């Protein structure tokens, strides 16, 4: 524990072997390290391959195979070979994302985690599978250095939530690595380009990998990267380019019901062809006895609709971040699929500038992670090691219904900042209470209250219209300042607190343990509270409609609606979130035709020359 109350991750004076940066990717993973002052990717086999395919095979005879050899085994042993495990990290088995994914056999077991039933014994969790990938990288790095590697910076997508981040960290620990920090992938790319050396700027990071597309807009302020917005498509990547080629080849072969093994062989050939087309104008693809020349021009045309999908996502991310393409200071290319010349051209056109692409887009994230690992461990860079202090407990805000919304997750390295936009709940509401809390639990009373203040002077508007941005900023000394600003008038109010004040190590520890012990219960509490807030909103709305448009009610309707209202009100006092939800739904149903009449009347009055504002 350092004197300002923050947990110190390690003692910088006691070196612990080599530190590495790891890009734990969906398709491929890499390990890099700063060697003689320069970040370099390390080879993952005895040749010069830097990419370790993120594939783990569990053999019938026991034993685990990771990487290129595992990928070769995938077609023959689909359920014993886990590909794209990253997509399962931190997700529960009921998660719709999880259900969508694949052909794996899920095993039952305690807790809300996915378990793959694989050959050779016990079911494995995504954390364990990722742990195998990390262990393989650690081993490679150790044989490279002929020494111990015990510390790593691991990258994660900027949109990863707390559970996904925690799962990644646990995978690291399982592999025998001390995770110095989880670093956002786009931030890692920016570090690799040394963009943090500039004073400020706004950057777009365009990441097209094997199966996912991510766009992030980053803002650099005084050496801290802040993620302004993220967007993406979790089902779009270089693999889709392979499928586009494979489809055309199947057509040319006149093959309408290919066998699974032909498809697998064809996809592998298509991938090779695609990669070769990056450097050659035409490439011959061979599968079985079929030979076909694919021209880059044709390939470009086939993938054009796929590339254009990324454009829609990028425009939205720019809009969310409140910047135009022209205001950006740079665009960075990340991911193997951005090698495709047509993708580069499209990005240049979309952002109106040449993207930065001279660092290998496969390696750029791992290189940035290595730079960060070096910053955090290199004793020659003592000043920068200050960055090691972390926030021991999450910082958040009370929202409707007594739930805590976390703005800065625990273990965030300081300095850091985060912002979120809130709105008013009631018509004409002119004040907003800001209640700052610390802790991991979901309910306000289970967290520690740090400060409260009220932003007043919000101009009266209909509920949900006002926009109040609440910004948390923690400086290098661990001082938290919170600012709330109403966006249309600019009125603002702020407060400064020192979040760690008065907390002992034991208290921090206890709060963390509690959050684990009460996780299930907390989820339920949160659901009930959310439903109660929804119930309150619906009741307010119903009362308003009945009051203003009672004349439109038909025989017996009022009694039915009022009974449904009463039921919502009753159940909202209880603890059953499903029941509340159903009661709200029932109220919606009985009032549907009444609400339609209200709308129709409003529309006909507008048509009759009234203004919309009257309603
Ligand atoms: P992820 O971030 O999902 O782990 P990568 O960044 O490693 O993925 O990107 C993998 C994708 O990049 C694959 O679809 C691969 O075929 C593609 N790729 C790799 N090299 C090239 C190349 N030279 N030309 C075109 N595509 C490439
Ligand atoms: Mg990647």
TrEMBL record:
GO terms (BP aspect): iron-sulfur cluster assembly
Residue ranges that the Swiss-Prot or TrEMBL entry lists as coiled coil: 518-545
Top-level taxon: Bacteria
Keyword Coiled coil recorded: yes
Keyword Coiled coil: yes
Keywords associated with the record: ATP-binding, Chaperone, Coiled coil, Nucleotide-binding
GO molecular function: ATP binding; ATP hydrolysis activity; ATP-dependent protein folding chaperone; unfolded protein binding
Annotated NCBIfam families: HscA, PRK05183.1
Function, as annotated: Chaperone involved in the maturation of iron-sulfur cluster-containing proteins. Has a low intrinsic ATPase activity which is markedly stimulated by HscB.
Similarity section: Belongs to the heat shock protein 70 family.
The protein's name: Chaperone protein HscA homolog
């Amino acid at each position: 524990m350092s004197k300002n109350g923050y947990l110190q991750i390690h003692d910088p004076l006691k070196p612990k072997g080599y530190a590495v940066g790891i890009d734990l990717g969906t398709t491929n993973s890499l390990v890099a390290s700063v060697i003689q002052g320069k970040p370099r990717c390390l080879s993952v086999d005895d040749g010069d391959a830097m990419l370790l395919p993120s594939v783990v095979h569990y053999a019938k005879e026991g034993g685990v195979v990771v990487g290129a050899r595992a990928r070769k085994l995938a077609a023959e042993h689909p359920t014993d070979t886990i590909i794209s495990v990253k997509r399962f990290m931190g997700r529960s088995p009921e998660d719709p994302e999880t259900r969508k994914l694949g052909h794996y056999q899920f095993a039952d077991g305690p807790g809300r985690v996915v378990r793959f039933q694989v050959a050779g014994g016990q079911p494995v969790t995504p954390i364990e599978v990722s742990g195998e990938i990390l262990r393989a990288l650690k081993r490679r790095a150790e044989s490279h250095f002929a020494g111990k590697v015990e510390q790593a910076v691991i990258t994660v997508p900027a949109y990863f939530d707390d559970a996904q981040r925690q799962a990644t960290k646990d995978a690291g620990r399982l592999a025998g690595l001390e995770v110095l920090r989880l670093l956002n992938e786009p931030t890692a790319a920016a570090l690799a380009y040394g963009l943090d050396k500039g004073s400020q700027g706004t950057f777009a990071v365009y990441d097209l990998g094997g199966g996912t597309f991510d766009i992030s807009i980053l803002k650099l302020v005084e050496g801290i990267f802040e993620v302004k917005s993220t967007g993406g498509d979790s089902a779009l990547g270089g693999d889709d380019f392979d499928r586009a080629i494979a489809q055309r080849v199947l057509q040319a072969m006149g093959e309408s019901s290919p066998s699974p093994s032909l498809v697998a062989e064809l996809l592998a050939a298509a991938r090779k062809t695609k990669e070769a087309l990056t450097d050659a104008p035409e490439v011959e693809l061979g599968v079985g006895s079929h030979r076909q020349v694919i021209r880059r021009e044709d390939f470009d045309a086939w993938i054009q609709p796929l590339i254009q999908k990324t454009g829609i996502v990028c425009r939205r991310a720019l809009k969310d971040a409140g910047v135009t393409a022209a205001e950006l200071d740079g665009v960075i290319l990340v991911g193997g699929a951005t090698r495709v010349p047509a993708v580069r051209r499209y990005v240049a056109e979309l952002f109106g500038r040449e993207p930065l692409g001279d660092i290998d887009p496969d390696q750029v994230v791992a290189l940035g992670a290595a730079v960060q690992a070096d910053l955090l461990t290199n004793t020659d860079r003592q000043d920068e090691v200050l960055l090691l202090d972390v926030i021991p407990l999450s910082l958040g805000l009370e929202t409707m219904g007594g739930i805590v919304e976390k703005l800065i997750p625990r273990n965030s390295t300081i300095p850091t900042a985060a912002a979120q936009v809130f709105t008013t709940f009631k018509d004409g509401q002119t004040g907003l209470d800001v209640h700052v809390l610390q802790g991991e639990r979901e309910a306000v009373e289970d967290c520690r209250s740090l400060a409260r203040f009220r932003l007043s002077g919000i101009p009266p508007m209909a509920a949900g219209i006002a926009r109040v941005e609440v910004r948390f900023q923690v400086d290098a000394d661990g001082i938290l300042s919170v600012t709330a600003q109403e966006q249309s008038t600019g009125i603002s109010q702020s407060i400064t607190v020192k979040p760690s004040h008065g907390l002992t190590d034991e208290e921090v520890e206890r709060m963390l343990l509690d959050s684990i012990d009460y996780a299930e219960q907390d989820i339920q509490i949160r659901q009930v509270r959310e439903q109660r807030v929804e119930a309150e909103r619906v009741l307010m709305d119903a009362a308003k409609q009945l009051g203003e448009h009672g004349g439109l009610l038909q025989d017996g309707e009022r009694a039915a609606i009022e009974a449904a209202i009463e039921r919502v009100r009753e159940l909202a006092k209880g603890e059953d979130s499903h029941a509340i939800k159903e009661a709200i739904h029932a109220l919606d149903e009985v009032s549907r035709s009444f609400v339609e009449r209200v709308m129709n009347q409003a529309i006909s009055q507008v048509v009759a020359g009234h203004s919309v504002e009257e309603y």
